[in-house]
Design a protein that fits this description.
Strand order of the largest sheet: 1-6-5-2-3-4
Radius of gyration: 22 Å
Order of helices and strands: HEHHEEEHEE
Mean pLDDT: 87
Number of helices: 4
Shape: elongated
Strand content: 25-35%
Largest sheet: 6 strands, antiparallel
Length: 180
């Protein structure tokens, strides 16, 4: 019975850690590679520590290795997710920077299709790299109003508490109303 409680506790901790991935909702990094580079050390240091502690918790019976093996496999799948979520959340929570709004010209619009859906995207001039571009997903109603080369996208970003920029929101800029 004690073994079952300790095994369950290990699983609850692992799933809760993976649940930190929800911090990405509304706090998407400008470049995912920035997030992955910072999450990798957390995974490389944290996963072995988790396995060690889990091993200590589930030891003591002839079936302990089965529990530990399940945690090893589950942890190998869920721990990277938790590492990404934790770093993303910390980047947002520790961020004390002011919002910066970037006004960019939309170069092109395009769609991507999967089996049951269509996604709408715009590609804009980059504020980070003068020769680069940035792509953003938009709604279908926004997509119909976009004119390539004329429409503008407003992107609100923060510099991030861990040093990688994240997008707070983005929207298509409404063209000014001409007075007659």
């Amino acid at each position: 019975r004690q073994m079952c409680i300790r095994d369950s506790f290990s699983w609850v901790v692992l799933v809760a850690y993976a649940g930190t991935i929800v911090s990405l909702i509304g706090h998407v990094p400008v470049h995912e590679s920035d997030l992955l580079v910072r999450a990798l050390p957390v995974f490389l240091l944290g996963f072995p520590l988790f396995l060690f502690v889990a091993g200590l918790l589930v030891r003591g019976t002839s079936r302990s290795h089965y529990s530990w093996r399940g945690l090893l496999i589950g942890g190998f799948l869920l721990f990277p997710v938790g590492s990404i979520g934790t770093i993303s959340g910390l980047n947002t929570v520790l961020d004390q920077s002011d919002e910066e709004v970037h006004d960019m010209r939309i170069i092109r619009k395009y769609t991507t299709k999967s089996k049951n859906s269509t996604s709408y995207h715009v590609e804009c001039e980059s504020w980070r790299d003068p020769v680069g571009t940035e792509s953003f997903k938009i709604s279908s109603s926004e997509y119909t109003g976009v004119q390539e080369g004329q429409s503008r996208l407003l992107v609100a970003t923060h510099s991030g508490g861990l040093g990688f920029e994240w997008v707070k929101n983005h929207r298509i800029a409404r063209p000014p109303v001409l007075k007659r």
